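chain below, 79 aa
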Amino acid sequence: MYHAYNSKWMPKYMFVLLAVQGRCAVGWAEAALIARCRTLDVDPAFNINSKNKYQGGTGSRQCPDAEWFLYLAVLPEMC
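prediction:
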């Protein structure tokens, strides 16, 4: 998804944070992670979810009982 030629943003690293059974569980975890990231002392311009006003939990609904992964995609900024 991030490597598509028309992708607006391409992370350098992706970290798997959680593996759970069921789409509902990972949707709640995703929303919680996004909410927590908003409380950190980080410029909102560097948070893609904030820039896009994405709240989480809205991904694909195919295979709801499959194993789902919560990941964090990052592109470190060098100072």
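The longest helix spans residues 23-39. The chain has a mean pLDDT of 77.
thats it, cya
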